[in-house]
Design brief:
Structural class: alpha+beta
Catalytic activity: oxidized coenzyme F420-(gamma-L-Glu)(n) + a quinol + H(+) = reduced coenzyme F420-(gamma-L-Glu)(n) + a quinone
Shape: globular
Domain Hemerythrin-like: 149-290
CATH class of the largest domain: Mainly Alpha
Strand content: 5-15%
Radius of gyration: 22 Å
Family: Belongs to the F420H(2)-dependent quinone reductase family.
Pfam family, one: F420H2_quin_red
Protein name: Nitroreductase/quinone reductase family protein
Strand order of the largest sheet: 2-1-5-6-7-4-3
């Protein structure tokens, strides 16, 4: 639960189209909704932000306290967040900047709002700079769906795009010049937070999609189409296999800085192979039926 003060800021923000008075009047403020790392519950926090081109930067300052704020631990566990900016609400992936990029971005933040420099001076910890990124590859996805088939294609295009994005980032990591790690040296421990956050966001979305299909879509369709029992059995089995690989990826990424890059790349390749085959089969088997069902669904008859 937000503190009483934060809740009052949240209420005023939402009631006034993103404008807040008091100590935040005239400042750049957004609402960040994260999923609790331990509780799994949603938590909304008002935060200042700084723009970096089309990106939004938020700082884990905690007013210069000795520990990172709770929302930062939440985004490490569940990178997909909801952002309220003015009257707009959108999903983003929260990616902490690292190394030289973090230092450069923090300089920009301090130039825009010197108070963050004062917070850094109060603590020995390095204040995290978190970049809020819109999910990649959304431009190729149709904006409107008129039936369930269109909606399934939308979701599948998004999943394919996110997986491709993670694979591209991983391939770029392995293609880095040898001098970056020393001649003939294996990849350094860890993959970096950018790959980690994007992969976890993809895994969360995939799990949500498949859980919804298993709990709602498939049982409903099976009731009307008993002749497709073997099809739904196969789809359910493929879900279990994909979930197993997803669990392997999540396990590798549980250590924020220590994932084995070679194992991760192998599991990612397996995920790509299994998921692509599953999505292709699901579309072939179900799209002709789903094309006859309007989206969004109407009230029950």
């Amino acid at each position: 639960m937000p503190t009483p003060f934060n809740q009052s800021v949240i209420d005023e923000f939402r009631a006034s189209g993103g404008k807040v008075g008091g100590p935040f009047e005239g400042g750049d403020l957004l609402l960040l909704t994260t999923t609790g790392a331990k509780s799994g519950k949603e938590h909304t926090t008002p935060l200042g932000y700084v723009r970096d081109g089309g990106l939004l930067l938020i700082i884990g300052s905690n007013l210069g306290g000795p520990r990172h704020p709770d929302w930062y631990h939440n985004v490490l566990a569940h990178p997909t967040v909801s952002v309220e900016l003015g009257t707009e609400t959108f999903e983003a992936v929260a990616v902490p900047a690292e190394g030289e990029r973090r230092d450069r971005l923090f300089e920009q933040v301090v130039a825009a709002d010197p108070g963050y420099g004062e917070y850094q001076a109060r603590t020995s910890r390095i204040l995290p700079v978190v970049v809020l990124e819109r999910p990649a590859h959304e431009a190729d996805i149709p904006e409107e769906a008129t039936d369930f088939a269109d909606k399934m294609v939308q979701v599948h295009l998004w999943l394919r795009g996110q997986l491709r994005h993670v694979r591209d980032e991983t391939d770029a990591y392995f293609a880095a010049p040898a001098g970056h790690r020393g001649p003939g040296a294996p990849p350094a421990p860890g993959l970096g937070l950018q790959i980690r956050q994007h992969c976890l966001a993809f895994c969360d979305a995939l799990e949500f999609h498949h859980t919804g299909e298993d709990a709602h879509l498939f049982p409903t369709m099976a009731g009307y189409h008993p002749e497709l029992r073997e099809t739904f059995d196969r789809l359910a089995e493929e879900h279990r296999e994909v979930a197993r690989i997803q669990g392997e990826l999540a396990g590798l990424l549980a250590d924020v800085g220590g994932a084995d890059p070679v194992r991760f790349r192998a599991e990612l390749a397996r995920m790509s192979q299994e998921l692509t085959a599953h999505l292709d089969y699901e579309e072939e088997a179900l799209l002709p039926i789903l094309a006859g069902l309007p989206w969004p669904p109407g009230p029950p008859a």
